[in-house]
Amino acid sequence: MSGVEFGPTISGKTYLCARWHRGAGSVNHKTEWIISHLEEYDVFCCADTASWADERGNYWSVKNGEPIGKNEERVAKFPVPQNSHDPWHGYPVMTGEDKPPIPLIDQWEAGSHISRSMAKRIKKGKV
Amino acid sequence: MHIKKLFFPGQFDDAYIYMQKLLLFDADGELFFADLDRIVGQIEDRHDSSVKSIGTHLFTRNDWLAGERILSLFANTAIRQAFVESIEGFPDQIDVDRRHIRKSGRLGVSDLLDVTVYNRRVFMGTDTGTYHADLNWTSREVEVDRAIRKRHDAMCVQVNAKYGSVSISCGDEGLFTRFDEFGRLANERRVADEWRSVRKQSHKTSWFFGNLLNYESPIEPMLLQVSSSTNTIRNPETRTPEKVIVGFEGDPTSVDHLLTGIFPMRERSLFSKNPLLFLFNTSNRLYAQTEERTFFEVVVKHEKNQRKLAARESKVISDSPLGRILDVVTAGKSVVLELFNSVQLLTRGRLYTLAEGEALSIRSYPHSKRFRNLVTIVVDEGVYVIALFDESVAMENQL
């Protein structure tokens, strides 16, 4: 079993809480969720509902600026599946290495999903 | 450690101390300033004579607390004790009246990601590019009297200006440097009047033994060796000699070898697989936080007659549960840590809270003559100007 499956979402997507982002298998370069499976799915649903996507179709999300990853990451990325029938999965990101698009960060700030300082920290790749 | 604060209320993006003025950049693109000399003078006039001149020493003339005279005075325990008692009598925090915050003019640039002031010119990094404004500085006023100029289109997360150059870190768009920004080499060979694309990635830069460390990711610094003007260049105002860099030479070099010492011997071979959470440098030190949240300082030396850097000493400066460090600035022998929900001063193994909540900006002024023990912190409600004084450090002449 590669993880816990949820869905479909309102838009018909299925989601996999992948075991390899919860400490299973090789830990090299794998960030880890610290929130529950259901919360992880909820973070994905927020992105799906609000269409928080970049130009390539990857989803990005936040959980009100709260920590979601083992290294206190605040931002999650959900890469678009290569096969449209595959379930989505995602992981916390360090924004110094992988950053959501600036308009999306501005949208999160304007919608009070994150604070002004958190928006600045994400843009600067600090969190 | 004595910590005294001035608090300036208002919603600001950033703050910067320069030429006795506190510059305040608001979220709507307006620039304000506060005259620190005048404010401190009025505070001292309001309070009783026991704190007279203490505010000046703390907030506007830090240079008076360094040097042979103060050392000589502090050698007398009665004088030192009286001075420390006067500092203790100074209020821990003074809320500055809003009438002291005066408008300089409209910059028209908001959502600042970084600000620096160099040679009276304000450089601003934003997600729409890099801008500069030449301000009119007088003893009482700071005015925006010329239109600001857009200097580069790429999103800029950090501006670093020194040695006549300006380097802007633009993330995935790279590092760009403008050499001889102020035309000091007019009588020598001039460098091209344009930005030079130096590296493909740049998260931030910082000076290290006179050369530039470019962080290609938050934890991957590469050292860029500078080449400087061979002629003696003098500052036209102060007439003091100044270094003007004209380019970078050779290939960038890794400084990873300076960091292996912070890992136990058995883990060194795994260094590349044990990413650090945070890395930062001063002119001769590296600060690193590991995934286990241990915070290290690595003192680096320059081997004489060789262009090699070597780690002289690696030590844990905090293994207490700090939380993840987002940024560090130094103030004397102390470090100021930006954490997610607070700003902490770490000195001699002890932590002191400087501000609660999320900081929008934290700056120190270690190379300033008059403001070397000040820290400015911008939070949602306003700006703290914080004076740090440790008499035992002052005795070591290392304020």
Written overview of the protein:
- The complex is a heterodimer of chains A (127) and B (399).
- By secondary structure, chain A is α+β, with helices and mostly antiparallel strands.
- Chain A has 3 helices and 5 strands.
- Chain A has helices at residues 37-50, 102-110, 116-123, and strands spanning 3-6, 15-18, 59-62, 75-78, 91-93.
- Chain A has a 3-stranded antiparallel beta sheet, covered by helices on one side.
- In chain A, strand 1 and strand 2 form a beta hairpin.
- The mean pLDDT of chain A is 94.
- In chain B, the strands form 8 sheets. Chain B has a 5-stranded mixed beta sheet. In chain B, strands 7, 8, 9, 10 and 11 form a 5-stranded antiparallel beta sheet that branches. Chain B has a 4-stranded antiparallel beta sheet with strand order 2-3-4-6.
- In chain B, helix 1 packs antiparallel against helix 2 (54-60).
- The longest helix of chain B has 13 residues, at 77-89.
- Chain B is globular.
- The termini of chain B are close together.
- The interface between A and B is medium-sized, with 20 and 27 residues.
Low-pLDDT sequence parts of chain B: none
Helical content band of chain B = 10-25%
Give the oligomer, counting copies of the same chain as homo and different chains as hetero.
heterodimer
Radius of gyration of chain A: 14 Å
End-to-end Cα distance of chain A, whole Å, is 32 Å
The coarse overall form of chain B would be globular
List the strand order in the largest sheet of chain A: 3-4-5
Could you say which overall geometry of chain A the principal axes of the C-alpha atoms support? globular
Let me know the largest β-sheet of chain A: 3 strands, antiparallel
List segments of chain A where confidence is low: pLDDT < 50 over at least 5 consecutive residues: none
Number of strands of chain B: 32
What is the number of helices of chain A?
3
Portion of residues in beta strands of chain A equals 5-15%
Radius of gyration over C-alpha positions of chain B, nearest whole angstrom: 22 Å
The total of helices of chain B stands at 5
Mean pLDDT of chain B, nearest integer?
A: 88
* Portion in helices of chain A: 10-25%
| Helical/strand content category of chain B | mainly beta
Sheet of most strands of chain B: 5 strands, mixed
> Which two chains have the most extensive interface, and how many residues on each?
A-B, 20 and 27 residues
Q: Structural class given helices, strands, pairing of chain A?
A: alpha+beta
